[in-house]
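From the pipeline queue, job 12 of 40. The input is one protein chain; the requested action is below.

Action: predict structure.
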Amino acid sequence: MVVLGRTGRNFAAGMAAASLSVYDDDGTFARRCNLSMVSLEPVLEEVDQAKLERELAAAGKGRLRHVGAADATLLAS
């Protein structure tokens, strides 16, 4: 899901096992988001996402790559 407009307070309350992108034009979304079950991450370009994935793999961690493409590529399509 992609949210292009402003969200209300307590956004994501009860949300689990989902991936969504929120356009945060004024940088205030984190204050309106319920972070008890979600984490916020920036949208990454292909090069930056590949670098992050290498770093996480080296640390024994992983990050879900949706449909095998970078976040920015998926949002642009």
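Job complete. The chain is about 30% helix and 5% strand.
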